[in-house]
Amino acid sequence: MRLSNTLKYIWGNLVLNKSRSFLTMLGIIIGVAAVISIMSVGASAQDLLLAQVKAMGTNLIGILPGASDDQGPPSSAFGIEITTLKYEDALDIKKLPHVLAVCSYITGRGTVSYQKEAYEFNYVGLTPDYPVVEDTAFAAGRFIKQEDLDNLARVAVLGSQAAKKLFGQENPLEKQIKVNQIVFKVVGVMKERGASGLQNQDEQIYIPLKTAQKIMLGIDYVAYIRAKIDREENIAPATEQIKQVLRFRHRIKDPAKDDFSVRSTAQALDILGTVTQALKSFLVAVAAISLIVGGIGIMNIMFVTVNERTKEIGLRKAVGAKRKDILLQFLLESAAMTLLGGLVGIILGILISAAIALGVNYFGYDWKFIITPLAVFLSTLMAVSVGLVFGLWPANRASLLSPMDALRRQ
Question: Is the pTM of this model over 0.85?
Answer without folding.
Answer: no
